[in-house]
Amino acid sequence: MEYLSIWDFILAPVYLIVLTYIAKKQRDKKYPVGHPLRNYYLKGLNVKFIGAIFIALVYEFYYHGGDTFNYFYHSQVINSAFGDSFSTWLNLILRRSPDTDPSMYNYVSQMYWYRDPSTYTVSALGAIVGLFCGTTYIPIALIFAFASYSGIWAMFQTFARLYPKMHKPLAYAFLFIPSTFVWGSALFKDTVCMFGLGWLTYCTFRIFVDRDLSFKNFFLLALGFYLVATIKIYIIMAYLPALGFWLLMNYSKKIRIAGLRWILNLGFVAIIAFAFIYAAQQFAAELNEYSLENIAKKAQKTQLWITYVSETTEGSAYDIGKLDGTLPNMLSKFPQAVNVTLYRPYIWESKKPIVLLSALEALAFLILTLVIFFRMGIIKVFRKIFADPNLTFFLIFTLIFAFAVGISTGNFGSLSRYKIPCMPFFGSLLLILYYQTKPASVFTKTPTHARKPARHLT
User: Fold this and answer.
1) How many beta carbons lie within 10 A of that of residue 254, not counting itself?
2) Nearest-5° angle of CA 86, CA 90, CA 91?
3) Of 174, 126, 180, 124, nearest to 153 (Cα)?
4) When you count CB atoms within 10 A of the terminal residue's CB, does the N or C end of the chain come out lower?
5) Which of 308, 305, 52 lies closest to 194 in space, CA to CA?
6) Is 198 helix (H, G, I), strand (E, B) or coil?
7) Which segments of the chain have a pLDDT < 50?
């Protein structure tokens, strides 16, 4: 089955020109000549566009279908109702019960994801975007990439302010990690989640650190949280503990008594840990598959299924040890799960071209990690991390998220996509630590009193 039509290749250059023109206007307005971030703006966007087109071609000619085209199919069904009845189309967008409008049955019966809000949300967003491009796949993917980039850029901008002499390394981490701009640039859940995560980070800092209480910040904060929580709630579950500790450390720096500051920090960590476990258990019904008990069982089922598939096909499964469906057993796999997310597949585990690209990226992260530990020593590395609220935030989110996806995925192909929310943070952590081994002038921060509020990116 062909998912791309001649119109994709006709309209793609048109939308590239239009979106690039809009981006240039934004860049010239927000980042005039001489601004240190100006040089990265269009480069980062261009690799997102490349990623979106790459995914379209790979899924069309290599995989001959897949998730991204399934989202697109649902978007087509939704928009097929637009010409018949606007009210029916709107009801489909809002995912209302077909019992409220019998005319919806004809469309709902064609969509097997209609009862899955997390998945259907992506298709509904694709349908809305599709109204502006004739519901054509590549233009939709390019617009998704463009929108997602606004969130990623906002996140990059947040930390570029805090490390003004490290714009280039941070640009590599947030804008140019291959897996991030490839898998986060098409019609995927991950593309929407990167948009939400970026604005969630940016607006949290603006509101709670810069005291910028504008309506725009609260709106984008709520929008980012809603999208990520709706589509992939486990990202929020990994993100909030790290975010809470980040804010605490930023505020606790004002406490001059070191002992009191550390007691406060440690007490907060304990509260977060107990609150997380309690909430996951108490709201098991609401969280459903993301309760602690169900996560363990799901991880076991995933492992059994992947093992079966690998025995019958030349798959790209990985094994982190026997899972028995219990929470203690799952937690015992923490090191293996984190390792597989951050540093695997190894080169010799690559059986497919796509997996080989992931392996090369993982190898680069492994080498950089070893270089940092060799130059600084393990103890000094962790002292540096826990002395800096931003590095602590990066580490906590990376570890929690890497464990969650590593334990529950079981396949290198899927893992390369699922892990991208934590990769900019992990990349930033490593590069900031690496540059701390350079002369002090490279790493000098701008004093707090000298910082100017970042201009909004809209």
Assistant:
1) 7
2) 120
3) 174
4) N
5) 52
6) helix
7) 282-283, 285-287, 311-313, 441-458
Q: Which residue reads 């898998």 in tokens?
A: 183
Q: 124 is written with which tokens?
A: 């509904």
DSSP output for 357-374: HHHHHHHHHHHHHHHHHH
> 411 forms bridges with which residues in the sheet?
317
In the prediction, which pLDDT does 278 show?
56
Nearest partner of 186 among 118, 121, 137, judged by Cα:
137
Q: Which residues of 228-252 are buried (b: 16+ CB within 10 A; e: fewer)?
A: bbbbbbbbbbbbbbbbbbbbbbbeb
Please state, as a whole number, how many other Cβ atoms lie within 10 Å of the Cβ of residue 127: 25
Residue 285 tokens, joined: 């019904």
Which residues does 65 contact at the CB level (< 8 Å), separation at least 6?
Answer: 1, 3, 59
Q: Under a CB-based contact definition with an 8 Å cutoff, are residues 377 and 351 in contact?
A: no
Q: What is the pLDDT of residue 397?
A: 93
Q: What pLDDT is attached to residue 309?
A: 55
Quote the pLDDT of residue 70: 94
d(CA 351, CA 353): 7
Q: How many helices (H) and strands (E) does the chain have?
A: 23, 0
Q: Please, where are the H alpha helices in 313-388?
A: 327-331, 334-343, 353-376, 378-387
**Residues 284, 288, 293, 295, CA torsion sign:** negative
DSSP code, position 411: B
CA distance to 3, 318, 327, per residue, from 330 (Å): 40, 16, 5
Phi, psi of 4 (to 5 degrees): -95, 140
Question: Quick one: pLDDT at residue 183?
Answer: 93
Spans of all domains in the chain: 6-203, 286-445
Res 56: pLDDT: 94
Examine residue 169 and say whether the peptide bond preceding it is cis (omega within 30 degrees of 0): no
User: What is residue 302's predicted lDDT score, i.e. its pLDDT?
Assistant: 59
- Which pLDDT score is estimated for 267? 66
Q: Which residues contact 242 (CB under 8 A, 6 or more apart)?
A: 393, 394, 396, 397, 400
Tokens for 308? 């079966």
Q: Enumerate the β-bridge partners of residue 317.
A: 411
Cβ density class 265-277: b for 16+ within 10 Å, e for less: beebeeebeeebe
Hey, is 317 helix, strand or coil? strand
CA trace torsion 153, 157, 163, 168 (10° rounding): 40
Burial of 6 (0-12, 13-18, 19+ CB in 10 A): exposed
Q: Cβ of 77: how many Cβ atoms within 10 Å? A: 20
